[in-house]
Every structure is written in C-alpha cells, then in structure tokens.
Amino acid sequence: MIRLAVPSIEEDDVEAVREVLMSGHLVQGRRVAEFERLVGDRARSAHAVAVANCTAALHLALLGLGIKSGDRVAVPAFSWPATANVVELCGAEPVFVDIDRATFNIDPSALERVLERTAVKLVMVVHAFGNMANMPRISEMAAQHGVPVLEDAACALGATLGGKPAGAWGVAGCFSFHPRKPITTGEGGMLVTNDASLARTVRVLRNHGLDPESDRQEFVAPGFNLRLTDIQAALGTTQMAKLDRLVDFRRRAAERYDVMLRDTGITVQLPLAEDAHVHQAYVVAVPGGTALRDGVLARLRKSSIEVAIGTHHLPLTGYFKRRYGYDLGDFPATDDIALRTLALPLHEKLTQEDQETVVGALIEAIGSPVCG
Ligand SMILES: *Cc1c(COP(=O)(O)O)cnc(C)c1O
Fold this sequence. Notes:
Elements: H1 11-23, H2 31-42, E1 47-51, H3 54-64, E2 72-76, E3 78-79, H4 82-89, E4 93-97, H5 108-117, E5 122-126, H6 135-144, E6 149-152, E7 160-161, E8 164-165, E9 172-176, E10 189-193, H7 196-206, H8 230-240, H9 243-260, E11 267-268, E12 282-285, H10 290-302, E13 312-313, H11 318-324, H12 332-338, E14 341-344, H13 352-367
Parallel strand pairs: 2-4, 2-5, 5-6, 6-9
Antiparallel strand pairs: 1-10, 3-13, 7-8, 9-10, 11-12, 12-14
The structure holds pyridoxal-5'-phosphate.
C-alpha cells in the first residue's frame, strides 16, 4: 500500500510528549507559550495564539474582527468547508469567488469584480495545499476598498512570497496542525497577527472569556474553551524543528512528480514563485470530467495506491448549494478544476520508485478509466 499521507513522528517527538505527560502539567503550562513563540517568529508576527484547531482559529479571528449577522465575507470557491463554515457560524454570508486555473487559488480578477459590486467586510484567502495566493495584488486591491484580508494558511506554514511568510500578509493568518498538514500536533491550530487587540480578543475567547492580563479571575466575555494542550504544544515544538527538512523533502518530491507528469495532459498546480509552495498535498487535475476522476480514483485505490480528491467545490456542497442555490456555471474555473482534482501520495516515507509506481498507475488509469 502506498499511503497518501503519513505524519513524520520521531523519537524526539515521542520524548517531548512523554515529558509533559510525566510532568503533571498537561494544560496551561509553559509549552503552549514556547510553541506560540516559534510559530509567531516563523510567520514574522508579533502575536501568536494557539487554539484547538485551525477552524477555531478562523472562527475566533472572524469574531475578533467583528464579523456578524448580515455581513458578507469573500471566500474562494475551492477549499475545505471550514473556510466558509466559520463565516456562516458568525451569521454572515460567504460570497464565493472563482479560482485561478494555474494556482488553484482565488482569482484576483474575479475578486476585483466581487469587490466592485458587493460590500464585503472581509476577504478570506486560502493558500490552497500550501501554495500562496497572489498576496501582493490581493492586499493592494483589498486596501483600495478598505477591506481587511484574513489568510486561511492552514496548509501553508513555511511558505513565503517575496521573502514574506504566509500568515504575515493579512490582518491575521491561521495555521493547522492536523496530521495531513506540514507539521502536526494531532489536532491543533494557531492564529498569528500584528494586531495586539485582535490577539487579546482571541486569547479571551479561547479560554472561557477570562482576561489574560488580570491576576484575578476576571471574565470579560462569553468565551469558549478552545485551548491547545501542553501535550500537543510540546509535540508542536519538536515538529517545528523539522519544518524546513519536511518542506525541502516535499519540494523535491513535488518537483519529481512535475517532471514525471510533463506532457501527459495532467494539470499540475503552479506556484507564483519558488518558495511560495510547501506542498501540503500534491494535487493534480486529470483530463476529462468528474466521472473520469472518480473512476481513476477507484482504480488507483484498487492498485493499493491511496489517493483522495483535492478539496471541495464549496458552492456545490450540500449546505451551500441548498442555502444559496448555486449551480454549475456560476464558478467556471472552479467547475473546471475542482471536479477533476486528485491528491497523490506525498510524505517522507515516499520513495522515488513509489512515485514512479503512482504516476505509471495514474497514466494507465486515465487511458482506461472504466473501473470494473
Ligand atoms: C485543514 C484545513 C482547515 C481546517 O483545519 P483544522 O485544523 O482541521 O480545523 C481549514 N482550511 C483549510 C484550507 C484547510 O486545509
């Protein structure tokens, strides 16, 4: 079996977790602050707030930015549902924006059209599969309209564009440490920002509404409990030491896939610049349509190659389709790309021979897509 994704967990990770477990301080010890500083420094942000997962980070960011019932938030049409769910959970409406066929990220021209005809309170960008969106153009455009930008950088820890890291471009950036992301804490998330007041609000909301600066127990808001444990933070700290190594490996493996897939009719995801992609996943679009993609997926799985769809065409997922009545044709580039995507195996245990096996099986499956 060639696995799709395998987290890189080593002895030092296990030891760090063991140490916390034996210390008796499983939550609210010093580990969370250590991990926050490492991620904050990496994302060149003054504040970093660890939370239970990236969805929580995004949700608390929206609450902290004052997104509420009746507001509209621009969101790319191609993403994991969490990106749009958090907007709905604030009572606001996601205004979906079509993607760019080369980068699989929000299309700046489509965003511009949305900003011209719709009053949105916020632009959310996603760095799809760790590939940074066109932040220079989007930042400038959003600034012209006086709208802040929030980065869903769930997959993009370690990516940089023009030397500026993912998470440092917007009013805030949110990272995920789910096992399929560049580094993992099992579940985990982090919000980074240079806005001290936003960071404080997120700290209050993650911990029962407790004032983090007060010595007495002052509850200043109705908060959640969305804290990260010290067990997870210790794992995050040892994982951070491996980030560069893991990203280097992924870039080299992705380059090998790129070469193997040249002239095959398979569409690969292009980065805007060399360091802009950390390849959280290696996602391609196969020729033909969804039926062909689903046939190819089934065939590869039958040959013991674990593959998955890339991610979701959000306006066509059950809830959003029903609620807003979206249909095929509303987002032509997302229709074209999203419904043909496949994530190929990519993890540190993957060998060059494995990659050749994957590509060989993929090309064969595309040639004879009917699955028995
Ligand atoms: C993984 C992911 C999330 C959710 O992260 P969790 O830590 O699982 O909550 C949100 N947005 C995108 C784009 C993701 O890929």
